[in-house]
Amino acid sequence: MVLCIDVGNTSLHGGVYKEGQLILQFRKTSRQQFSSDEFGIFLRSVLRENELNYMDIREISLCSVVPDMIHSIRSGIMKYFKIEPFILRVGVKTGLKIKYRNPLEVGADRIANAIAATHFFPDQNLIIVDFGTATTFCVVSKQKEYLGGIIISGIRISMESLVRETAMLPKVEIREATQVIGKSTAESIQSGLYFGQIGIVKEVVAKATAEAFDEPPLIIGTGGFSSLFESAGLFNYIIPTLVLDGLFMVLQINKS
């Protein structure tokens, strides 16, 4: 079995693949630092509670946008699994042509998303929208060129900023809004968060398409909040596990 781990700014998203199929997903907050022992024990307990044997994990693929956590995570894996994890970073084989001026600036999670998307949809122009701590857009050509992207505040950051910077606005549940005009302060915030993201996505996708492509690309949604927008008509496909799929695939690419 293969264990894949994506460390984001807000949460850690993990998954276990058996014979190429994702059989388990789990999440853990990444806002607080943890030791290598805490992390190793956490991974073992997740597997045990889901009736999987940690000794059946043969390979581990990892990406992180939180550099300070890589050492603890790697050390925990080495101690509790006796495996040297594969880390998606600059210099490994990806099958992509990175067109950023400085390829070091591209987040590893965004590269993983692009790897998986180009595998699932070969010979297609793509725009990948990832709803995480930030909402990110990756523009990828049918020639597997990573052309660049766009980064905006994510839906949770937007809500927390409202609460932090205002005296009377409350923290609300992040959910799909059924109407634009809210009938209470909470509904008004929920409407703004939900339809605000929809409006931004539509505008950014339209401008990126006009700038990069001569024909409409496939629009792929992913990330923790992507399922919130299933009925919004924004995407051709929503694949919440795209980054984990990319981590699994890049491991195979580098093995070969």
Residue share in helix: 25-40%
Strand order in space, largest sheet = 6-9-8-7-10-11
How many strands appear in the DSSP assignment? 11
Q: What would you call the quaternary organization?
A: single chain
Rg (CA only)? 19 Å
Strand-residue proportion: 15-25%
Structural class computed from helices and strand pairing: alpha/beta
Distance between the termini: 17 Å
Low-confidence segments, ≥5 residues, pLDDT <50?
A: none
**Any idea what the shape is?**
globular
On the 0 to 100 scale, the average pLDDT is 93
* Sheet with most strands: 6 strands, mixed
Number of helices: 6
Order of helices and strands: EEEHEHEEHEEEHHEEH
Give a written overview of the molecule.
- It contains 6 helices and 11 strands.
- With 256 residues, the protein is of the alpha/beta class.
- The strands form 2 sheets. The protein has a 6-stranded mixed beta sheet, with helices on both faces. A 5-stranded mixed beta sheet has the order 3-2-1-4-5, with helices on both faces.
